[in-house]
Amino acid sequence: MRKGKQKSIDTLMGALAEAESRAFYEEEDNVLNDLDELLNVFLRKGEEPERRQLLKEYDSGLPLTGPEGIRRKLGAIDMEFFGRAYFPHYFSKPSPGFHRDLDAIWQQGVLKGRFPITPKVAREIDRLPGCRRAVAAPRGHAKSTTLTFKGSMHAILYQYKHYPIILSDSSDQAEGFLENIRVEFEENGLIREDFGNLQGKVWRNNVILTTTNIKVEAIGSGKKIRGRKHRNWRPDLLVLDDIENDENVRTAEQRSKLSNWFNKAVSKAGDSYTDIVYIGTLLHYDSLLAHTLTNTGYKSIKYKAVLSFSQADDLWKEWEDIYTDLSNDSHAEDAKAFFEAHKAEMLKGTEVLWEEKLSYYDLMKMRIDEGEASFNSEEQNEPINPDDCLFQEEWLDYYNEAEVDFKDRSFVFYGFVDPSLGKTKHSDFSAIITLAKHKGTGYMYVFDADIERRHPDRIISDILEKERRIRRDYGRGYKKFGCETVQFQWFLKEELVKASARAGLYLPVEEVPQTADKTLRIQTMQPDIKNKYIKFNRRHKRLLEQLVQFPMGAHDDGPDALEGCRTLAKKVRKFKVIPRESLI
């Protein structure tokens, strides 16, 4: 019985081993089939002599893989094939045209138009004069994967660079790029099959040394880089990937510090053979990348997520009203349904950089969700020039809500509404601003900044609700509430007065007929903001965004209403001085 049981176990184990073996070979066959498909496409893609020679080798049945295989040789010639053949887990989506542009930048710049199929050609490449390239590309478009990761891997594997350095905005970020490279050397069987085991004795988070004696380092911006050497080599490839962030572009001092590091340290770290490839997103008009793009020593290119906007402005305006109506719980679904019903017309004339990754609809949602300033900067690479704007971000003074007690009777509330009725062809944002002015100091605190799209009846109900709230929470209402009465807006003022009386609130509405030029009016707030007489709250993102973009931004209702409210709060009643003797 024991013999029979043992025989059954042996049979079972044999069957399992056979199944595993069969699965292994099936998987290998699948890989080879995929490789066959790739080779069939890419060997016939161009007319270079090297590619035609490889096609002959392929047709002759020479090995596809291994150190002398066709896969390795074709990878030296074609960057797109290299990515798809060795890193299918990264390059699964169809490559957009601009990814091929990035490949061409590497091919013509770092590779000098040559193909490192043999060690001899690789050695020739690294002794040629270095190139300088700068690329601005949108967020979320795989620029780092295509250029930094794939390009660096190509340089290391084909050994035409001996000492690449990857630089990013922080050490952690730079080391993250190096980790992705390290993992491929450790775990990617395709690389091991064609290039062997490259894991060397030095294998740390910030530096690796391959068995082919190539040193790769990861360094954060601002860190020491001059004087570094690897044997007789100075850094021969510097890849700068997003070395700027929102913080280090915020002030002129920080931008200057980064610029000095780049010009005095990074640019001097290499030799005549050193290639510098700088890729990122334009976060500020005066950023380092912005200046590098116009540097005569660099060949530069700038990409935008949206290449061409829709011609159907009216329909997109309707869609935006639906999408931003937060009183409707299904606003996102309703907006998508509206889009689907008018899709052909709404997409007329549109073109995006990478349709398979971010469609035009995705990008329009992003523009609303993240704000126009962020979208213009990070997706369109068109940050607003602060020199063209009237209010600098560093002028804004913020108060801490926990440190200000608005229940103190020293605070007086003033309100103002810019309903934006009849101003433009399309309805704009309506803005309701509330200032709390301190009677002792004269400082004006932006207590509330409510800026959104809404119908006139909603504007009225929102104003009355604000009056109820500050009465309830602070024991008093608005001392004055201003209402702009240009063109059709007088109608809203009249309706507001009637609704206020019906509700028993008797809001002290003051008519404000704005006749002066809007830009000149808003500009009068410069000294009040610069001298910190007006205190802001970081929660009021839309107001702050419109303010620092004025007059270059798409919307200005917030600054317009703030100016009206500030003027209302600063009005001082004039008293006539009567001589004392006339009273006797």
Q: Whole-number average pLDDT?
A: 89
Categorize the overall geometry.
elongated
CATH architecture of the largest domain: 3-Layer(aba) Sandwich
How many domains? The number is 3
Rg calculated over all Cα atoms = 32 Å
**How would a crystallographer describe the biggest sheet?**
7 strands, mixed
Query: Total strand count, please?
Result: 16
Terminal residue distance: 134 Å
CATH hierarchy class name of the largest domain: Alpha Beta
| Widest beta sheet: strand line-up | 3-4-2-5-6-1-7
- Which stretches are low in confidence, meaning pLDDT under 50 for 5 or more residues running? 19-31, 422-427, 573-578
Helix content: 40-55%
CATH superfamily of the largest domain: P-loop containing nucleotide triphosphate hydrolases
| Structural class category | alpha/beta
Number of helices: 22
CATH topology descriptor of the largest domain? Rossmann fold
Report what the structure shows:
The protein folds into three domains: 57-302, Rossmann fold; 307-383, no CATH class; 393-570, DNA-packaging terminase, C-terminal nuclease domain (Nucleotidyltransferase, domain 5, 2-Layer Sandwich). 45% of the residues lie in helices and 14% in strands. The chain is built from 22 helices and 16 strands. It has helices at residues 2-42, 49-59, 70-77, 79-86, 97-108, 119-127, 143-157, 171-187, 189-195, 252-266, 288-293, 313-323, 331-341, 343-346, 360-370, 372-378, 456-474, 489-502, 518-523, 526-530, 541-549, 557-570; strands at residues 132-136, 164-168, 207-209, 215-220, 237-241, 275-280, 299-302, 306-308, 351-352, 397-398, 411-418, 430-438, 444-452, 478-484, 509-512, 534-536. Helix 18 (489-502) links the parallel strand 14 (478-484) and strand 15. The model is unreliable at 19-31, 422-427 and 573-578 (pLDDT under 50).
